[in-house]
Write a structure and sequence with these properties.
By secondary structure, this protein is of the alpha+beta class. The chain has a single domain, classed as Nuclear Transport Factor 2, Chain: A, CATH 3.10.450.50. The chain has 3 helices and 6 strands, in the order ααββαββββ. Strands 2-1-6-5-4-3 form a 6-stranded mixed β-sheet.
C-alpha cells in the first residue's frame, strides 16, 4: 500500500526530473487536471496536460542532447494531508541550477511552490501549483530569447 506523503513527494521530484530532461509532455501529464500560476505574472499561466506541455516547450531552451542543462532541486517540503477529504497541500522551496558550454554552474532561479493535490480513485494528482519567484539570476541560457517563463 502506498503512503500519501511518499506519493506526493514522488510527484514533485518526478516533475523536477522531467523538467531537467526536457520531457515537457511528461511534465504536462503530471498537471493533466491542474493549473499553474505564478505570482506577479498570471493566476493561471497554463492548464491541463497539453497547455502545460506547450507552455514549457515554448519558453524553455532545449539543448542538442534533449535536456535543458538544468538541475531543479525541491526542498523543505511541508506536506499536510487530509485523508478523509482526499486533499493535500505542500509548501516547498526550489532552486534551479544550470551549466552550459558558455555558462559556469550556478543557481539561476529560486523561490517557493505552493501545491494542492487531490486523491481520485486512490491516486494522488496535482490540482494547482502556485510559484513565487524570490531570486533570479542569469536566465538567458534557460529561456528562449525574449520570453518570460509564464506569460
Amino acid at each position: 500500500m502506498s503512503d500519501a506523503r511518499s506519493d506526493i513527494e514522488r510527484l514533485i521530484f518526478t516533475c523536477d526530473m522531467r523538467n531537467d530532461a526536457g520531457d515537457f509532455d511528461g511534465v504536462g501529464e503530471l498537471f493533466a487536471h491542474a493549473t499553474i500560476g505564478i505570482a506577479g505574472m498570471a493566476e493561471v499561466a497554463c492548464e491541463g496536460a497539453q497547455g502545460t506541455a506547450d507552455q514549457f516547450r515554448s519558453v524553455t531552451r532545449v539543448y542538442p542532447e534533449g535536456g535543458a542543462r538544468t538541475h531543479h532541486l525541491s526542498t523543505n517540503l511541508i506536506i499536510e494531508i487530509d485523508e478523509v477529504a482526499g486533499t493535500a497541500t505542500c509548501s516547498s522551496h526550489y532552486m534551479m541550477y544550470q551549466q552550459t558550454d558558455d555558462l559556469p554552474l550556478q543557481p539561476i532561479n529560486a523561490g517557493r511552490n505552493f501545491d494542492t493535490f487531490e486523491r481520485v480513485a486512490g491516486v494522488w494528482r496535482w490540482k494547482r501549483r502556485y510559484i513565487t519567484v524570490l531570486l533570479s539570476g542569469d536566465m538567458s541560457h534557460h529561456l528562449v530569447q525574449d520570453t518570460t517563463p509564464f506569460t
